[in-house]
Amino acid sequence: MLALWRYPLALAAVSALVCAQWYAAPAGVRPASRNPGASILPGGRIVAPVGDQYFSGPSPFGLAVSASARAVATASAGPDASTPIVMERQNSGHWEVRQPAARALDSVAPFDASDWRGVSRGLVFSGEHAVFASEGASGRISLLDWSAGRLRTIDLNQGGATGSYAGDLAFDAASGLLYAADQANFRVAVIEARSRQVIAWAPVAGAPFALALSPDRRKLYAAIAGESGSLCVVDVSDPSAPKLEASIATGSADPSGVAAAAGRVFISNKGDDSITVIDGATNRVEAEIPIRIPGFEQLRGVWPAGMAYHERTGLLLVAEAGINAVGAIDVRERRVLGHIPVGWFPTRVTIDHDTVFVANVKGQGPNAPFGGSQWRQGSLSVFPIPKPEELLAQTAFVLGANGFQPRAAAAQSLPAGVRCVVLIVKEGRTYDEMLGDIPGASNGPAMGSPELARFGTRGYVDGLRQRLSIKDVNVTPNHHAIARQWTFGDNFYADSPSWPAALEHLKRQGATLATFGDYPGVDTAIRDQDRASQFIREIQERYVKTGADLPRLLFIHLPNDRMATARPGGGYPYQESFVADNDLALGRIVEYLSRTRWWGQMAVFATEDDTRGGVDHIDARRTVLLCAGPWCKRNYVSHTNTGFPGLLKTIFRLLRLPPMSLQDAAAADLADCFASKPDPAPYHALPVDKRIFDPAAF
Known about the structure:
The chain is α+β, with helices and mostly antiparallel strands. 14% of the residues lie in helices and 33% in strands. Residues 1-19 and 102-117 have low confidence and may be disordered.
């Protein structure tokens, strides 16, 4: 059957043809939306997962399937962590999805989510109606038995161990032994499940990120987190005395998953998009299987994660978080056969007989545009092992949905007159909160919701019953004035910022740059006015007075629109005062730059680092994008569905630099924001309302 897989031959043929083509995400100007069948993602990609889809809790990094495959559990990770979500298959074949209630073992009080101290990626079944779930930083592992309504706990901080972090789990049901990764203490613990006692542990050569048991259950494999990949082999033939048998350097970056089959062990490497194959008998690296996209062979961004091996076909299925797919790899021939479309950001995959289960951290697309904890809603994809003839079409869809197929139209040109790019990164606001009251621009209406523009020209300052609230006040006059004078985007999204990686990429490419501010830290005790003043002083001292030329990129961090506790004595009588401080700092910087000798060669971008689950009527990730400078269109709104990768692509193109990753290479850029001729008009910063923020009060 495997001889019928022809995708690798197609890859080689296509790669030679499209290396010089133009690529962009397929959404165009359509906004992010979740639809039956196919959804448009923030940033312009498409997801249309195969099989059946079920909603899970927020960010399901954990996935487990019971021995009978009649129950599936997912568990969340991060700030919105919750108890596991369980799917049970009824006799009719229908899957019932629920969050089981439980009762603490030693308490008559009902168990609720507040008792749950967090969930990491560790999740395994114990029987058909109970799961072990790691709690991460608490150092605990909880056994949730929903049939008995009980919650039992295991504490890894036993026998002198302290500060444990409970990570991935592996369970030997035949012997009743649970293996737990303790990432903080660089060890693997052996736990007797019945007594819930740690009976032994073995040190490993770093933080164990992922675990897998060998089919004969005599070896435990631990993928070690870090920039230099390695696999630790622990001999557990005598569970009471586990010992480190080998530490194998894989030579690949950032291991993100491990799977074991008869005679082989597989490690997925996020850093270089590859699978390392290790001989289970000799503990030696046997092969490296690269995962490459045609036309983009030199770039990375597939981000392989969890894996599962299908013995009958010899297929290794790999969750490909970066391209919203599951890769199908023929491990016998050591080649990628194709890609299966699943949900948004898949990280875990498991197989029962011929059925595949995939946990998608971000679900099926936008699902809670107004923010809150549910905007992180995940999903589970369930589908059969694909047939060869299905995989060809599925692969073609994945390539197109991610923007990896060349576009018919040529790339829109960018102005050659731009030599210097200024990138101003702020913190934590959605588009509607800040600019939702802008009705439109010279080229037509904007997608805004005025009633959500709490920081708009008719904004609201909340006194929190301690001070007088202020209605219909202009909180961000400079943001609005810059948008009116030049260009703003109403279809731009905060999707996975990678500013540090981008700065490193610029350095590697030989571009000069200078950074200003405390990124990635956020210290709201420092006024954004002081950050702006410091930036202006440094430009004056370093470049104006010396006659030196500006670097190609100036990176400025202005974080105070994140807001903090009011400080009336320091000029911040309200939480919203921090937003006004941020607005004035932005205006001052743009005004200063517009009066320098470099203005005619400059493009200024201002955006947010994230949206912090804020409020927006399109999607909770939609955020602010301002484009200012002589080469930017006047009074224009860009409707291009793009995000941080598209912004980086635009910057790289302006600076004549190659792409950094698959994400920015295939993103839609912001070329439509630029004019063919410059208009050197300067900017005049507007004062803020001193009832909100008084720059002199400190």
